[in-house]
Amino acid sequence: MKNVNRIKNAVFFTVLGVLAAVGLLWFARPEASEIEKRRLTTFPQFTAAGLLDGSFAGGVDKWYADTYPLREAFITGANRLKALYGDRSVQIVNGGANRGDEIPTVSTGPGGETDGPGGESGGESAGSSLPQESEPPVKTGPVETEPPDAPTESGGRDEGPAQEGEINGPIFLAGDTAYGMYYFNRDAAERYATQVVNRACELLRDEAQVYSLIVPTSSGVILNKATQESIGVNDQDSAIEYANSLMDPSVRALNVFGTLNAHDGEYIYFRTDHHWTALGAYYAYTDFCGAKGAAPHALEDFEKREYPGFLGSFYSSTMAKALENNPDTVDAYVPMGTNSMVYADKTGKETAWFIISDVSGAFSGGKYYCFSGSDQPYSYAHNPQITDGSACCVVKDSFGNAFIPFLIDHYEYVYWIDFRYYGGTLPALVRDKGVDDVLFCLNIENISSDRATTLMLRLLEEE
Questions:
Q1: How far apart are CA 228 and CA 233, in angstroms?
Q2: DSSP characters for 78-104?
Q3: Which end of the chain has less neighbouring CB within 10 Å, N or C?
């Protein structure tokens, strides 16, 4: 028995020693997680104050655990073990016990207008300068067709602009397809409509036309009503209609739910990721053109690029084998007028990039990065084929990335800001650049998020 105990102790301490030695391999520590689609914790900066209050030691501890060289192997192994727990082809991941608020009924008032709370009439249902020293060109300034420092597109690129990982709530997994579960938040939806969109309309009245495009997610468009009721999610069509009904009549509020639902048999949403595809964004773009009074370009007019092997956020959250065995393909459509853009990162540094960039060499979770420079605070593009001085500004989240390329051929200048990271104000940007159209292009989760709508309100603070 003593010999057995000695062997157990020897094996235990040997394994412990090996794991400790691996932890000392600083050169093997990863900087990003492919599984979690995020940048990992960096080593904390040493300060005397941090040493005294314990924050430095805490930061080192977090860095050590987050960047341990075998961490992703352990995560993968744990999820593989969970996959052995019986039939898991249909399941709810990350909770699912929540229930959204009841969606108020939008009634039709006299004259055909929709009535919101307090008898407010609804909108139509048509389908600061950068925080840096180097300002982008104003509308009248010359911009070269290709930025002087643009990277070459020859060969596959294994990295691109960093995209922040988005936190995913409950996920419904059915076979080889996953869906985000949507819960309506009435307070947040009303704040988005009345304090964000209507406030923007008030501040920019007689300066720019304001549009709102709330993007439904796949669970609302693809799943049938019986399935939606069985998993307890809210009706996204009704949620969008309610938010739109609270908007100022001069806002062109689009509800693209019906258009997307009419194409629900097509590849308009990814199976392994929470985003829509470029095809889904294209159909919404045709609705935008209808609201604007412009003729949409035919899909076949664009150069199409394909990036297979995409495993998105739903896969990284569930590690489901069914998703891994059936990765998505990211299709992208290159604008006709120009494929050049410039983005400014969180430090204000500008980088020349491509509206559709080559991600053929990117890791499996990074294929969606090909659109519009990913999630940067501020970006802009100049289309030299249009010379009428027209300009559009898109306030967006990551869903807007796949939508923006279709706008390039309708304006001389397109600016886009990510409400989560942009440090200036929307009115200042509109006035500085002479913007004609302002489009809020956001997925429905962000109009049902208190945090998201609070961040949007910062864009409208008085100068």
A1: 6
A2: HHHHHTTSS--SEEEES-----PPPPP
A3: N
State both tokens at 290: 């209808």
Q: Which amino acid is at 327?
A: P
Average pLDDT over residues 86-115: 65
- Per-residue pLDDT of 241-279, as tens digits, reads 999 999 999 999 999 999 999 999 999 999 999 999 999
CA distance 18 to 379: 47
Q: What is the dihedral of CA 404, 405, 411, 416, to 10 degrees?
A: 30
Given a contact cutoff of 8 angstroms between Cβ atoms, the answer to whether 289 and 295 are in contact is yes
Task: Name 335's Cβ contacts closer than 8 Å, sequence gap at least 6.
Answer: 302, 355, 356, 383, 405, 406, 408, 409
Q: What is the pLDDT of residues 384-410, one digit of tens each?
A: 999 999 999 999 999 999 999 999 999
Strand 252-254 relative to strand 209-215, pairing? parallel
pTM: 0.76
Positive/negative CA dihedral, 417, 418, 423, 424 = positive
Tokens of 65: 């655990």
Mode of pairing for the β-strands spanning 378-382 and 413-418:
antiparallel
- Greatest alpha-carbon span in the chain: 91
Count CA within 13 A, CB hemisphere, residue 66: 17
- What's the N-to-C CA distance of the chain in angstroms? 78
258 Ramachandran zone, left/alpha/beta (phi>0; psi -120 to 50): alpha
Rounded CA separation 230/235 (Å)? 12
Task: Choose among 451, 372, 377: nearest CA to 421.
Answer: 377
Residues 173/93, Cβ–Cβ less than 8 Å? yes
**Neighbour-count burial of 115, counting CB atoms closer than 10 A to its CB (0-12 exposed, 13-18 middle, 19+ buried):** middle
92 sits in which H/E element: strand 90-93
